[in-house]
Amino acid sequence: MKLYVTPGSPYARMARIVVREKGLAGRVEILAAQTRSAESPYYRINPSGRVPYLLRDDGVGLEESALICDYLDSLDGRPAFALPAGDEAWEARRLEGLARSMLDGLSVWNRELARPENERSPGVIRHETARAGRMIDLWEKEIGHPFMHSALNLLQLTLACALGLEARLPDFRWRPGHPRLSAWFEPIAQRESFVATAPSAAV
Ligand SMILES: N[C@@H](CCC(=O)N[C@@H](CS)C(=O)NCC(=O)O)C(=O)O
């Protein structure tokens, strides 16, 4: 299988982390995709041009980080990242929605900073900065939830990859005033899979 990624994408990072956590390095070849450039040869592989993208050995391609993580996690028949089912599913999906909402906002901010300086929108940056601040306050309250303290799951992975964008967003200083969230993040950030996939500071 081939997993197409870019080094700075938090969504692709989620899939790269699952590859490492599940010991799939021998089965999944990780390839750098050229995104956001006209005429990129990658568009012939994945017409949407987004990463992550998992091209299975049978030629079928999967897009969307959550789907790819679930698929990779299920390959050994012992899914470890799956969220609870049954009555607890709604609560888990509520929290996953909050984590993804923050990740999506931070990605817009990150994308804005990746543009040439004269093309950046101060309005978009202001909007996403404020959203991120509100979401961090919310997560400081939600982080005590039992689903955030069980074995690493898709929900925790989403939140941790969002928080990890601090490496790329100089003004995303979420730790001050958020001791519970900071304490939660620390051991996760130290896992081998997180250290090995950490985004670079370069935008
Ligand atoms: N909802 C998608 C989002 C993926 C996404 O937006 N990836 C960005 C990188 S962070 C991308 O590929 N951008 C390239 C483009 O928009 O052309 C997921 O969860 O996988």
Describe this structure in words.
The model has no long low-confidence stretch (mean pLDDT 96). Helices cover 49% and strands 7% of the residues. The protein contains eight helices and four strands, in the order βαβαββαααααα. Helix 1 crosses helix 6. The protein has helices at 10-21, 42-45, 65-74, 88-114, 122-142, 154-163, 179-189, 192-196; strands spanning 2-5, 29-32, 53-55, 61-63. It is α+β, with helices and mostly antiparallel strands and 203 residues long. Helix 1 links the parallel strand 1 (2-5) and strand 2 (29-32). A four-stranded mixed β-sheet has the order 2-1-3-4, with helices on one face. Glutathione (GSH) binds next to loops.
Q: What is this entry, summarized?
A:
This protein is α+β, with helices and mostly antiparallel strands and 203 residues long.
Summary keywords:
203 residues, single chain, 4 strands, alpha+beta, 8 helices, binds glutathione, 49% helix
